[in-house]
Amino acid sequence: MTDPQATPTPDPTPDSAVADPLTQARAELAELKAKSTELADQFLRAKAEVENARRRAEEEISKARKFAVEAFAESLLPVSDSLEAGLTIKDATPEQIREGAEATLRQLNAALERNKVIAINPPAGTRFDPHQHQAISVVPADQEANTVVSVLQKGYTIAERVLRPALVTVAAPK
User: Fold this and answer.
1) Cβ(147)–Cβ(173) under 8 Å?
2) What are the Cα distances from residue 42, in Å, to 29, 30, 130?
3) pTM flag (> 0.85)
């Protein structure tokens, strides 16, 4: 039996039911704020990293453009030296001049090849290729039509890209 004089104890369920979701919501809010702060920090760091990478890439491209010709120029210096040395000889015979010019031309060709500048000099009878050859004229010839008859000026490629097409005459159709 219960004592009517005893003070009733309040039911803890209503207060704890209200306090528990409130506490839970505050805990979730704090957790979400921390996660948001962490993600914002990660975003800022990633953004700064991308910006730094972009800046470094731009600097490297700038340097590559600025110094791209350096290796090529370096390989041409001996050619220049040879030409200057040849010009200092006052009493050179025509044979000596020719010999010096041929040696200098070999140096120049070697320097061009080292830098991947390759001559386009198709032999007679080679099929005409509009990507590498420029037809100057079409001439009657005793060879198959649309083939190279003669080369008027060599062409050049650099790293498989045409710098200048070879100027050629082409055999006319019969």
Assistant:
1) no
2) 20, 18, 55
3) no
Contact 132, 151 (CB under 8 A): no
Hey, what's the torsion of the CAs at 105, 110, 116, 120, to 10 degrees?
A: 40
For 125, other C-beta atoms within 10 Å of its C-beta total 12
Among 71, 169, 168, 81, smallest CA distance to 117 is for: 71
Say whether 46 sits in a helix, a strand or coil.
helix
Q: What angle do CA 165, 161, 170 make, to 5 degrees?
A: 25
Q: To which H or E segment does residue 92 belong?
A: none
Q: Which helix (H) or strand (E) holds 144?
A: none
The pair of three-digit structure tokens given for residue 59, joined into one six-digit string = 């600097």
Q: pLDDT per position in the chain (174 positions), as tens?
A: 555 555 555 555 555 555 688 899 999 999 999 999 999 999 999 999 999 999 999 999 988 888 888 888 999 999 999 999 999 989 989 999 999 999 999 999 999 999 999 999 999 999 999 999 999 999 999 999 999 999 999 999 998 899 999 999 999 987
Q: Give the Cα separation of 160 and 117 in Å (integer).
A: 9
What are residue 172's phi and psi, to 5 degrees? Answer: -80, 150
